[in-house]
Amino acid sequence: MTQANELPKAGYCRLSQIIGNKKAKPNPIPAIIPISKAAWYDGVRRGKYPKPVHAGNLSFWRWADIVKLVEQMEKGELSG
């Protein structure tokens, strides 16, 4: 079991779980990385953020990749 402020270590997530969705109902989804969708995809294109895994026309990101990204951001290791 994970703590409330701890990210899962396995599985996949959708973009709304990464950048958040204030309009989600019934509960808004808080952002892990608070940037716009356009900025996220620009970062993916430039190699700053991890590439998604595609299943049909859906995109998913590995939680392990997002955890690693957050750790790099916290340490200031992520290049602009």
What is the topology?
Blueprint (H helix, E strand, L loop, with lengths): L11 E2 L1 H5 L17 H10 L6 E3 L2 E5 H13 L5
Antiparallel strand pairs: 1-3, 2-3
Describe the structure.
With 80 residues, this protein is α+β, with helices and mostly antiparallel strands. The protein has one domain (12-74). 35% of the residues lie in helices and 12% in strands. The protein is built from three helices and three strands. The protein has helices spanning 15-19, 37-46, 63-75, and strands spanning 12-13, 53-55, 58-62. The chain has a three-stranded antiparallel beta sheet with strand order 1-3-2. It is globular and about 35 Å long. The termini are far apart.
- Which stretches of 5+ consecutive residues score pLDDT under 50? none
State the helical fraction: 25-40%
What's the helix count? Answer: 3
- Derived from helix and strand composition plus strand pairing, the structural class reads alpha+beta
In what range is the share of β-strand residues? Answer: 5-15%
Trace the largest sheet across and list its strands. 1-3-2
Q: Mean of residue pLDDT?
A: 89
Largest sheet entry: 3 strands, antiparallel
Rg calculated over all Cα atoms: 13 Å
The 3D shape can be described as globular
Domain count: 1
Order of helices and strands: EHHEEH
**How many DSSP-defined strands?**
3
**Spatial separation of the terminal alpha carbons:** 34 Å
Brief descriptors of the model:
80 residues; alpha+beta; three-stranded antiparallel sheet; 35% helix; 12% strand
